[in-house]
Write a structure and sequence with these properties.
The chain is elongated and about 75 Å long. The longest helix is centred in the middle third of the chain and has 12 residues. It is mainly β.
Length: 162
């Protein structure tokens, strides 16, 4: 049968009656660093140029609705829910699997003379770096794999002037 283990003649740690037993295999994610926040825009970037010598008021309104979810780079050996729970516990932040930026949200800002104010509506995500691996029933582990994740935590505007 193909499902039968191949006998190598060498005992594994779990073969001996007094060998270690770590129970069922466990997928693990360990958060290591919090690396800042990044904005993921939904819809187009808006801009308003003030060509006058006085400050002008610019109002921007979101033109689309969009959903932004978790983004992962690397090989995650566990679920996204476990990753998020680990991040919440380690860094005391509220992150979620996805957030929706909705149509019609407005913001009014001052645009300085001879400057352009830019505005993009969307979701801010926290960037985290960690490692993922599996603990086998015989207490051995797979090699750690680096995982970079971007987890949504709030909806809002990204504003800048040029």
């Amino acid at each position: 049968m193909d499902d039968e283990p191949t006998y190598t003649g060498k005992p594994t740690p779990g073969d001996a009656p007094d060998g270690p037993d770590c129970g069922a295999p466990q997928s693990v994610y360990r958060a290591k660093t919090r690396d800042g926040e990044y904005h993921k825009g939904v819809g187009p970037t808006n801009a308003n140029h003030n060509g006058t010598s006085r400050t002008a008021r610019s109002t921007f309104t979101s033109e689309v609705t969009g959903e932004v979810g978790v983004a992962i780079q690397g090989e995650l050996e566990t679920s996204v829910n476990r990753l998020l729970a680990t991040i919440k516990a380690k860094f005391n932040v509220t992150v979620t699997a996805k957030l929706t930026a909705k149509l019609g949200n407005s913001i009014a800002v001052d645009t300085p003379p001879h400057r352009t104010t830019h505005a993009k509506y969307g979701v801010y995500r926290l960037k985290h770096t960690g490692v993922s691996y599996v603990i086998h029933s015989n207490c051995t582990t797979t090699p750690e794999k680096k995982v970079v994740s971007y987890s949504p935590y709030r909806v809002g505007w990204n504003l800048w002037a040029s």
